[in-house]
Every structure is written in structure tokens, then in C-alpha cells.
Description:
Layout lengths: L4 H8 L10 H17 L17 H5 L7 H14 L5 H26 L9
Helix pairs in contact: 2-4, 4-5
Amino acid sequence: MAQSILDSVKKMCGIDPSQTVFDLDIVTHINSVFSDLEQLGIGPVDGFMIEDNVPTWDAFLGDDPRLSSVKSYVYFRVRLMFDPPQTSYLIESFDKQIEKMEWRLHVTREGDAWTDPSLPAA
Length: 122
């Protein structure tokens, strides 16, 4: 079953997917996170963005199960931008999860497409 990116992020943020009043905010934040993921080498080479609830996670991730943490990563980042927790302890916890996921996604990507940093860029 293909999951809508927008609907699943809204659900994880505690917003009923049928409620559309915050869609512009959520979509904007999701696209910002996709831009960051592209810089990490995750997602389509030409970038990726959504405008509504039609695009699915399969369209962004393909069928690589090693990238399943991207869904949580997008949620944590969107939640911090859209509706940050009220306590510094929870914000710090989110930040640590984000850092850990970024590192692991980077390691996964480097395992697939390592480039020698001593060589000039193509």
C-alpha cells in the first residue's frame, strides 16, 4: 500500500489527514527537509518536492528498505519546525534522534556511492 507523504507526516504530527488548514505549512517544511536530504545524497538525484497528498514515500525512497528511517527523520524535522515540543528536554531528544539518523543515512549512502574526497569534483 502506497503511503502519502503529506498524510503520513500529518498523522505523525497528530493532525487528522482530512484537515487541510495546515497543509501549506507542512508541505513547505517537508520540502525543506527533502532539500536537506538531497544534500546528504538521499532521494532522487534531481531533487524531490510535494505540493499535495498525492506523492508517496515509494516515489521518494524507491524500494530500498535501508532508507525506512527517512520517514521518521522527516517527521522529527517537520515537527521541530511546525510544532516544537514545549520542553528543552524533548527538543534535545529530537535533535539527538535527527543527528543519529543523519549519520546513519550518510553512512548508508556512502556505502553505496563512496567518492574519494581527494579527487577533484566532476
